[in-house]
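fyi for ur records
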Amino acid sequence: MTGNNLPLLQGAAVSALIPQKPPIEMVDTLWYNDDTSTISGLTITSENIFCNNGLFTEPGIVENIAQTAALGVGYAVSQKQQNGEKINPPVGYIGAIKRLLIHKLPPVGCELKTEVMIQQIIFDVTLITGKTTVNGETIAECEMKIFLKKD
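which gave:
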């Protein structure tokens, strides 16, 4: 994974860029973004709805990867906004998940770093690969097909 030591955005600034809201919000930090990749962070708390018996479960990891992709799109849209216009983050839907490998469920208290790489964009469909790490160790990876809703 690439990225900086200082985040681009955190907390409410990240929340404003994605359509999901608590308790389904699964990103809290934007570490990096460019035309083809986004790196997000999420500190797992015991209050997270996807935690069970002290571990962050599979649906939460998948949602974290999808929301990392959404955060990249939201950030790109925000960079094009002018004069403080309100950002309406694009809504996307997971169309397919392939080659999902969950190597390990992370415990409460750790920070996920998730990198999403855009592989291809065809009309309103974006094909991405995602990889989630904890302290540099890969815990999950997959491919996703994400459909963006037209306004």
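The chain has a mean pLDDT of 93. thats all i got for now
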